[in-house]
Amino acid sequence: MNQNKFIETFISIALGLLVGALVLLISGFNPVEAYGIMFKGVFSNPKYIGWTIIRSTPLILTGISVAFAFRTGLFNIGAEGQFIIGSLVATLVGYFAKLPPIIHPIVAILAGCIAAGLWGGIAGFLKAKFGIHEVITTIMLNWTALYFSNFVVFWKPFKRLNRDASERILDTARINILGKWKASEAGKAFLKNNSFLKDFLNPPINYGFLIAILVAILVWYILKNTTLGYQLRAVGYNRDAAEYGGININRNLIVSMMIAGAISGLAGATQVLGVSRETAVLAAMEGYGFDGIAVALIASNNPIACIPAALLFGGLKYGGSKLQPTIGAPMEVINITIGVIVFFIAMPKLIQMITSLRGKKRGVKVEDTK
Amino acid sequence: MKILNDLGSIIGITLMYSAPLIYTSLGGVLSENAGVVNIGLEGMMTIGAFAGAAVAYFTQNPWLGFIVAGLAGGALALLHAIACVTFTADHVVSGIAINFIGPGLALFLTKMLFDGAAMTLPLDLDHKIPRPLNGIFSSISVSNPVLVKIVNALNSIFNQYATVYIAFILVFAVWFLLYKTKTGLRIRSVGEHPRAADTLGVNVYKIKYLAVILSGILAGLGGAAMSIAVISNYRATLISGQGFIALAAMIFGKWKPQGAMWGCLLFGAAQGLVVHLGGTDLKVSSQLLAMIPYIITLIILMGFVGEARGPAANGEPYEKNQG
């Protein structure tokens, strides 16, 4: 992200928070108090920081998935469905496979990624072979994935008795950091004297966050420094020129959607192995994929920038969830705020006008933006 | 003669489920023919569903709710137009923003107005959109058992809310507007080649604004057709995904109003079949049945549609003084 882009994003975020404050003010709440509650709700306790990171982790990955597809000229609305398939398959492997620790989660994650990659690849294939727009296919595949997941969860050997969810994954498949140690006598004794670590480790802290950071770096590297990345970006910039240059468009479409799918699937798998430990029956979309679209946009489709963007998003959502119990303000104000941020990010021209106006007032020479 | 009964019920459900999609996808047709991609249909539909249900509840007047729903969708579309037309925003990005703002605002206001509840209070049956042709065939007295069956089937087909009939009238109206009027020609020319339209004296910006706002009004009406006709209140999960399905129907229908209508009917029919089968004692998982409409849509797209090409300048920002 270059400096101008960074400033534009920053201003958009500020404007979004401003509109959020206005909405609160008009509705009769004190915005300063509300934002104070949100800020404290994220930072006042190591436990809350832990939860914010946990909430943000799947969004980093779905954000990268959408960003990656965008960079190759595809709009992956299907992150939602790929996430569902990834979590379903990871749960299946986590419950049915009997494997030793360390190997078990690796196998479960790989299985989730591969399944979701193939699921995403369907959209790429349908686009390459039949020319069907990926927006339609991924939307249809999202709903198919949702009902398919529910169907599998209702399968007798897999469903937990009297619960609308699957069986829990085995302990060998979990990816919690210091999970065993936390519960052991030695761990308990140690944590008794270290309240910061005790609070921080209270939520299900897991390796998902570290995996997400590694993936961000990896995807950034692939896009920037490899032949595959070069080809994918070329297809994204100008399909006809890329074809003229000897790049196989159809193959790249499918590969791109498979990689995007695998990354979203990874988000689902880490969420299951690290946090939820099960797949629940879904009545509606959970929104990890759609939130990922916003994350990618805030990050200007840069995989590394998806990390802070997702942390901002996760922080707003987690902090916002504390508004209702304290001052009674509906937490949907956060969705409005995020929407407004994305809205301003869509209009760099407006932001440039605002910044150049300020520049003029100060008598600074304004360079022509065009 | 059970088949007549089944057919009547399936067609009836099809029409009921298709109507909200038809409004919304007509909205998509208008906006995209003017060259503005409208992914925000979902958000506009949601705000319409909320506004319609809330106004109808407080005023006890469903028609007022219906109109306000259109205005609410139009207001959100105005934002989209300002971003896309005046500030040359990326249409998809702006649409995504609308899809956060619309549902967020709808649920926020619901909680404010209805004591923190995540749904509006239901309308009583007398205050929903009426069913003008309900039982119109019952007055026909026939004795022949086959004819009785036919009359019954006709009754279940025409037992529709007024919003269903309006939807089909609007298909014709949008078709007429686009292909038989000067404004329609301008809308299409702006979507195909804005610069050429501009040189011929068409006010490109004005036409785009008009088309986008109309599209939001239609999407808002579509939302209300769901919240104050198909069911009787707004709740957070009511619209989930229908705006996108309407968008898919529009692409399926190759950006034409009648095509979009067929797309919506196809999806509605698959939905009708599922609802109907769910009511019989067929032993199939309801989850598997629920997948059918989506899979059918995919298969039909594979077999029959082929490469879909929209208006040439769809999604491209237009700036007057740039060559």
Report on this model:
The complex is a heterodimer of chains A (370) and B (323). Chain A is 73% helix and 0% strand. Chain A has 370 residues and is an all-alpha fold. The longest helix of chain A has 28 residues. Chain B is an all-alpha fold and 323 residues long. Chain B has one domain: ABC transporter involved in vitamin B12 uptake, BtuC (Orthogonal Bundle). Helix content of chain B is 71%, strand content 0%. Chain B contains twelve helices and no strands. In chain B, helix 2 packs across helix 9. The interface between A and B is large, with 49 and 49 residues.
Total domains of chain A = 2
Q: Tally the beta strands of chain A.
A: 0
Computed structural class of chain B: mainly alpha
Regions with little confidence, pLDDT below 50 for 5+ residues of chain B: none
In N-to-C order, the SSE pattern of chain B is HHHHHHHHHHHH
Number of extended strands of chain B: 0
Large-scale geometry of chain A: globular
Q: State the CATH architecture of chain B.
A: Orthogonal Bundle
What is the global morphology of chain B?
A: globular
How many H/I helical runs of chain B?
Answer: 12
CATH class of the largest domain in chain A: Mainly Alpha
- Roughly what is the average pLDDT of chain B, rounded to an integer? 89
Number of helical segments of chain A? Answer: 18
